[in-house]
Amino acid sequence: MSFFTDLAHQYIDGEWRPGKGSWDIIDFNPFNGEKLASIPVATAEEVDQAYRAAERAQQAWAETNPYARRTVLEKALKIVEEREPEIAEAIVAELGGTHLKAGFELHLAKEFLREAIQLALRPAGQILPSPTDGKENRVYRVPVGVVGVISPFNFPFLLSLKSVAPALALGNAVVLKPHQNTPICGGTLLAKVFEDAGLPAGLLNVVVTDIAEIGDTLLEHPVPQVISFTGSDKVGRHVATVCAANLKRVVLELGGNSALIVLDDADVEYAVDAAVFSRYVHQGQVCMAANRILVDRAVEAEFTERFVAKVASLTVGDPADPATQIGPLINSSQAESISRLVDETVESGATALLHGRADGNLVSPSVLTGLPADSPVLQQEIFGPVALIVPFDGEDEAVRIANDTPYGLSGAVHTGNIERGVRVGQRIHTGMIHINDGTVHDEPIVPFGGEKSSGLGRLNGESMVEAFTTQKWISVQHGRSQFPF
Predict the structure, then answer these.
(1) Are the C-beta atoms of residues 7 and 184 closer than 8 Å to each other?
(2) Residue 15 in 3-state DSSP?
(3) Fewer C-beta neighbours within 10 Å, C or N terminus of the chain?
(4) Does an H or E element contain 314, and which?
């Protein structure tokens, strides 16, 4: 596909070029195994070149009138809107996203671009009083300089754009490393959009590479002041450790093990719809997915019957078919891991109401219940189409079970009494929770992030200003200070 081969390059200092590494990252269609592109990896030297280019370009960009910066982002939004069908096809091909998923991702991407346009004008300084006569304290909001962005494979276009666009709007330069499985949608596609929007060379650099080639160069390099990482908590801990040793700030958006709670007064039919979407959207490869579905025993039988029937009706197949609701997992390793997890959980005592099977990278949905309280699967993130139904007796037990996890990203509570739902939600140790809705939500101006092993910091809205700018104090003495010697 020419779309992919045209973008199968490194993008450094405004130039499209092959990587200098001795091996290639192969970009495959996860559904049919078609080779989409072959990209020679970037070396540590090229990562250095990307960061140095960003460093050179950033100062002039920071001094550029924010209205001019805003214009570039407005053009980027227009380009995304014009090329939306082409980008949607790329999402279907590169990551096995269904048409529904591609539309969902692109809708959010455009919303976040619109917010980034506004962010260019958002930073505001302060003048603060001083106990010293004649002194004026000015506090400026200034760009951090260069931001390193590491993005995941599940929503690659959105989650790369989500950090890249605000960082640029606020006067920074960026070096982006997309996931190896989605180097185009998560990386060079963004470079092309911003290049065509008129972004000056050097401000956005994309390096397609792997830790096997560059080690921790991306994190340890002296130029970037902030690293924005989205991915697993295991890798996130490593990122945090390396950045702390190098005195760099981090924004970490990590995994989840979210609970969707169905209380005894819930609208069961509606709760089923929310739970099925929250668990199976994009094959369950979503950090906010409802891993655990907690159901009050008073409605357990009705909920379970309806839930299993709806899940069994989902269409599994080619993501290019608009009728498909469950497409492939990102690669064979993930497909094998999910199949093995289901088998092991059933062998350890769980009951499979639906036992999904793998056909290549396609894995049909599983629904498990009757899990032993100490089942390891209850404690981990499941990045695949597997739902766990866990019964409970009353609110207190629901809260205890929901909190019995090292994660705290999202969640939901279904109830006929909204304020009851809010009270339960306040007791859940999570960064986000939704009453009478699904667990998978993201909005441009609402703080997004998790607690515990689900991350550090927040993104979106004013949180972007906190993440990608810093404060500088300049005092002015209009009179004369008195010194003791």
Answers:
(1) yes
(2) strand
(3) C
(4) none
Point out which residues pair with 206 in neighbouring strands.
11, 176
In this structure, the number of other CB atoms found within 10 A of the CB of residue 1 comes to 16
- Catalytic positions, written as ranges: 253, 287
Rg (CA), the chain: 24
CA dist 417 and 415 (Å) reads 5
Q: Whole-number mean pLDDT of the chain?
A: 97
Q: Which of 38, 49, 45 is nearest to 14 (CA)?
A: 49
Mean pLDDT of 44-69: 98
Mean pLDDT of 330-347: 96
pLDDT of residue 2: 79
78-97 in b/e form (b: 16+ CB < 10 A) is: ebbeebbeebbebbbbbbbb
Q: How confident is the model at residue 1 (pLDDT cuts 50, 70, 90)?
A: low
φ/ψ (deg, to 5) at 219: -90, -35
Q: Are 273 and 310 in contact (CB under 8 A)?
A: yes
Quote the percentage of the chain above a pLDDT of 70.
100
Helical spans, DSSP H, in 232-331: 233-245, 268-280, 300-312
Tell me if the pTM is above 0.85: yes
User: How long a stretch of residues is the chain?
Assistant: 485
Buried b (16+ CB within 10 A) or exposed e, 452-474: bbbbbbbbbbebbbbbbbeeeee
Per-residue pLDDT for 281 more than 80? yes
Residue 446 has pLDDT above 80, yes or no: yes
Q: Do 23 and 143 meet the contact criterion of CB atoms below 8 Å apart?
A: no
